[in-house]
């Protein structure tokens, strides 16, 4: 903190602000508000770096607080000065802006609404960066090189078509708020735009100057004579694009049918686009194209000023690298300046609060293509594809086999199970479609789609679980297990978590358990049940569930209000001893025979699923011959008499087996050993060997 500014410094700052405001044609009220706020921060904090960059942050915050009256529409948020113009005038890159704006928000104590808007804006920028990296190579696969100097002399040259296609995409995306920060949906929307423009190019008079003759999606008729009839709808290449470029046909067709096509038809009806409204063609005919290009750019500029802030046409500019803050593609070896930029980029990715750490948008985006084994888009779409294959052929209701299992119980649980799933579904849709403190609400269509997939998965997993339990516990009545509300709630939450993860959702764990009000302790207990019952889970899905398991073990199970403490109390402190839970060993953990770390012990555990074992221990993969768990799901969720030493807390198994990554507190209680809690939060046995490190927040 510093208050001893030299007098000349204040004058210099004011002159810088005046210059910036003049370039932006800023109104006096906004400029005064920005200066007052900046002065307050300037007199309280030491601001490092170029002062103009901090002025830009103050100006942006002041602009977004303002409003402008409109004809017949009341007030419009903002003052019609775009973020892009502010950044260009202040020579501040987008990545630097996001970094400084987070600090400015804290120093200025800006509202939660403003912070949410910034996080959404940053997420949208990250998604657009990934999408543009896919757009350019796909376009060049379908069309002629847009950067060719020969093409620039044509009346409707490929360079303009390239820019038109991207602008049409970002304008359309901007009008679907729930798509803008969704990688999978945004990518399929891009494929829809490419499909539309390609179909129009096939019917264009100068199509040979536009179309790449080696494109593998060319219609057979065009390959034969280079002509397609203009009296028929243009051929659709969307399915072929999905095959060639990591798309999902069902997802892409859904976006086209329900969002893209109706919206393009609306643009024709409003005469923003000119051509054949019936066939959605003739957009690239010379005179129509000139009008269409101007109209789309004009409409998008209005959108940026009133809603969008970030002008995504920045990716098309010659100075895109400087404006965005990413390394130049043309530099073969990193220079000192480039190294600095990459360092800034890495810091941005690491510190960005708007990116969920489990999404494919965490830094690999900015690596050179040759360094990527899997692209962010292909990773995301492959995970969704795996999910869809898991539920293929199933329905969001109990199968005939599962219904028979229900009816074989002494008390048929069908009605209560259906009612519970419906209630949980309504709760999910309500929270998914409404803004939260850190996540904007999504469209109801997406909520229903995610819920349907989760319901199908739930009934499939439940059927697999019941089939295993029926085989294991022949003749036993399953009513007790099927009436366990906590079991069904945990299983449904786990299914929803897997679906949200597959779609790279921002609503990652613990969002779902907070929505359905499920303690982490119980979510933990269902993870192994889930993994054992679904062999179709991808590597990334299993790793994600494993990371949740570790979160619960490391911290979430030990909070003051954790259900663990109630379970411990109900167990009467009579829980398995250390010796009972270490396989094949009666010795103390600190002895020579038991000197190995817990990881190899877990890797040798007979109940650890091979896919979990691979990630936990690094001892390699063993996907086949999955052994059955010594602990049945029925026992895992049953309620033995209080005081029983077999009381299950974390769902641990009989002696000589353990199902957790590390021994739980219940496993470490031993009458033969003295347990002490160190000052650093470590749990010691006999004052010698550290068994477990946990944050001790409760109990």
TrEMBL record:
GO BP, one annotated term: negative regulation of G1/S transition of mitotic cell cycle
Localization of this protein: Nucleus
Region (Disordered): 620-650
Domain Retinoblastoma-associated protein A-box: residue ranges: 375-568
GO cellular component assignments: chromatin; nucleoplasm; transcription regulator complex
All copies of domain Retinoblastoma-associated protein N-terminal, residue ranges: 66-200
Keyword Nucleus: yes
Database matches in Pfam families: DUF3452, RB_A
Keyword entries, A-Z: Cell cycle, Chromatin regulator, Nucleus, Phosphoprotein, Repressor, Transcription, Transcription regulation
GO molecular function: promoter-specific chromatin binding; RNA polymerase II transcription regulatory region sequence-specific DNA binding
Record family assignment: Belongs to the retinoblastoma protein (RB) family.
Role played: Key regulator of entry into cell division. Directly involved in heterochromatin formation by maintaining overall chromatin structure and, in particular, that of constitutive heterochromatin by stabilizing histone methylation. Recruits and targets histone methyltransferases KMT5B and KMT5C, leading to epigenetic transcriptional repression. Controls histone H4 'Lys-20' trimethylation. Probably acts as a transcription repressor by recruiting chromatin-modifying enzymes to promoters. Potent inhibitor of E2F-mediated trans-activation. May act as a tumor suppressor.
Assembly, per entry: Component of the DREAM complex (also named LINC complex) at least composed of E2F4, E2F5, LIN9, LIN37, LIN52, LIN54, MYBL1, MYBL2, RBL1, RBL2, RBBP4, TFDP1 and TFDP2. The complex exists in quiescent cells where it represses cell cycle-dependent genes. It dissociates in S phase when LIN9, LIN37, LIN52 and LIN54 form a subcomplex that binds to MYBL2. Interacts with AATF. Interacts with KDM5A. Interacts with KMT5B and KMT5C. Interacts with USP4. Interacts with RBBP9.
UniProt name for this protein: Retinoblastoma-like protein 1
């Amino acid at each position: 903190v510093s208050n001893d500014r030299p007098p000349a410094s204040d004058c210099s700052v004011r002159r810088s602000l005046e210059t910036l405001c003049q370039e932006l044609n800023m109104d006096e009220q906004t400029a005064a508000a920005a200066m007052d706020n900046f002065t307050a921060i300037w007199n309280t904090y030491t601001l490092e770096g170029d002062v103009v960059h901090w002025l830009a942050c103050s100006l942006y915050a002041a602009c977004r607080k303002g409003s402008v009256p409109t004809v017949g529409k009341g007030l419009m948020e903002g003052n019609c000065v775009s973020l892009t113009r502010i950044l260009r005038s202040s020579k501040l890159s987008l990545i630097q802006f996001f970094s400084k704006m987070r600090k400015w928000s804290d120093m200025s104590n800006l509202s939660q609404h403003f912070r949410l808007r910034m996080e959404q804006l940053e997420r949208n920028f990250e998604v657009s960066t990934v999408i543009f990296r896919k757009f350019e190579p796909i376009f060049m696969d379908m069309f002629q090189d847009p950067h060719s100097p020969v093409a620039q002399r044509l009346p409707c040259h490929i360079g303009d078509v390239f820019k038109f296609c991207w602008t049409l995409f970002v304008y359309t995306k901007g009008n679907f708020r729930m798509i803008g920060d969704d990688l999978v949906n945004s990518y399929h929307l891009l494929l829809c735009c490419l499909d539309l423009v390609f179909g129009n190019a096939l019917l264009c008079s100068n199509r040979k100057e536009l179309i790449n003759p080696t494109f593998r999606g060319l219609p057979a008729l065009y390959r034969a004579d280079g002509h397609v009839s203009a009296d028929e709808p243009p051929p659709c290449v969307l399915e072929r694009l999905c095959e060639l470029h990591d798309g999902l046909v069902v997802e892409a067709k859904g976006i086209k049918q329900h969002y893209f096509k109706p919206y393009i038809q609306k643009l024709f009806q409003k005469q923003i686009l000119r051509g054949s409204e019936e066939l959605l063609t003739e957009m690239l005919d010379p005179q129509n194209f000139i009008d269409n290009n101007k109209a789309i750019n004009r409409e998008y500029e209005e959108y940026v000023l009133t809603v969008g802030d970030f002008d995504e046409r920045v990716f098309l500019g010659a100075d895109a690298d400087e404006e965005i803050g990413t390394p130049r593609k043309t530099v073969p070896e990193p220079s000192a300046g480039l190294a600095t930029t990459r360092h800034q980029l890495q810091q941005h990715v690491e510190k960005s609060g708007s990116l969920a750490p489990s999404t494919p948008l965490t830094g690999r985006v900015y690596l050179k293509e040759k360094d990527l084994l899997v692209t962010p888009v292909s990773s995301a779409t492959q995970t969704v594809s795996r999910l869809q294959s898991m539920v293929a052929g199933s329905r969001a209701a109990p199968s005939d086999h599962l219904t028979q299992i229900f009816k074989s119980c002494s008390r048929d649980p069908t009605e209560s199970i259906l009612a519970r799933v419906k209630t949980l579904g309504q709760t999910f849709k309500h929270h998914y479609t409404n803004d939260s403190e850190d996540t904007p609400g999504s469209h109801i269509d997406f909520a229903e789609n995610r819920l349907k997939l989760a319901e199908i998965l739930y009934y499939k997993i439940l059927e697999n679980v019941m089939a295993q339990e029926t085989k294991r516990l022949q003749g036993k009545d399953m009513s007790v297990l099927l009436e366990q509300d906590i079991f069904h709630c945990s299983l449904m939450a786990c299914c929803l978590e897997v679906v949200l993860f597959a779609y790279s959702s921002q609503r990652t764990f613990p969002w779902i358990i907070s929505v359905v009000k499920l303690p982490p302790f119980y979510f933990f207990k269902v993870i192994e049940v889930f993994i054992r019952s679904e062999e179709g889970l991808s590597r990334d899905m299993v790793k994600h569930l494993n990371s949740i398991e570790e979160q619960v073990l490391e911290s979430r199970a030990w909070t003051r209000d954790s259900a663990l403490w109630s379970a411990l109390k109900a167990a009467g402190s009579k829980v398995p001893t250390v010796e009972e839970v270490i396989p094949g060993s009666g010795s103390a953990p600190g002895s020579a025979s038991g000197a190995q770390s817990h990881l190899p012990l877990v890797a040798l555990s007979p109940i650890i699923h091979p896919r979990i074992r691979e990630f936990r221990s690094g001892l390699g993969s063993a996907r086949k011959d999955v052994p059955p768990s010594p602990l049945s799901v029925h026992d895992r969720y049953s309620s033995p008499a209080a005081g029983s030493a077999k009381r299950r807390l974390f769902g641990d198994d009989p002696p000589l087996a353990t199902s957790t990554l590390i021994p739980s507190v219940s496993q470490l209680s031993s009458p033969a050993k003295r347990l002490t809690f160190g000052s650093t939060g470590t749990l010691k046995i006999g004052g010698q060997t550290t068994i477990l490190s946990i944050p001790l927040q409760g109990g």
